[in-house]
Amino acid sequence: MDENDIGGLIVDCAIHLHRRLGPGLLEGVYEAILARELEKRGLSVQRQVSIPIGFDGEVYDEGFRADIVVDGKVIIELKSVEKVIPAHKKQVLTYLKLTGLKIGYLLNFGEALMKDGITRTINGTL
Where are the domains of the chain? Predict the structure, then answer.
């Protein structure tokens, strides 16, 4: 399954989850359930994945953690806020650049409609 196929499943699961639970719960609630729903669809899911910084042959562990990494190909960052700010989008792009992965999703479960809370970020071109 490629990144775009995985992305489609992520969006489907996020919309389904948001419809069932509604907006505004703590991020951890959405993270746990979304991870399990993705696993039920046959995907490999890792939660709270450490992302080190590599530079000039040295590795720095600054405590960056991706909320979810799916099949080792797609990063998901979850929020439950009234409004996404540029720093949230920058967080996803930082994780993509540090890992070399190509696609990341910022999912804001704080939006009234989930479709308004989905931001797809691409690192380079696919």
Answer: 3-122
Record the tokens describing residue 24, joined without a space: 């505004």
Q: What is the reported pTM? A: 0.93
Phi and psi torsions of 36, nearest 5°: -65, -40
Close Cβ partners of 53 (under 8 Å, ≥ 6 residues apart): 59, 60, 61, 62, 64, 98
**Is there a contact between 113 and 24 (Cβ–Cβ < 8 Å)?**
no
Q: Which helix (H) or strand (E) holds 16?
A: helix 3-21
Q: Does 3-122 carry CATH code 3.40.50?
A: no
d(CA 124, CA 55): 19
| Helices within 22-108 (DSSP H only) | 27-40, 86-99
The one-letter amino acid at 121: T
HSE-up of residue 93 (Cα within 13 Å, Cβ side): 9
pLDDT tens-place string over residues 77-107: 999 999 999 999 999 999 999 999 999 999 9
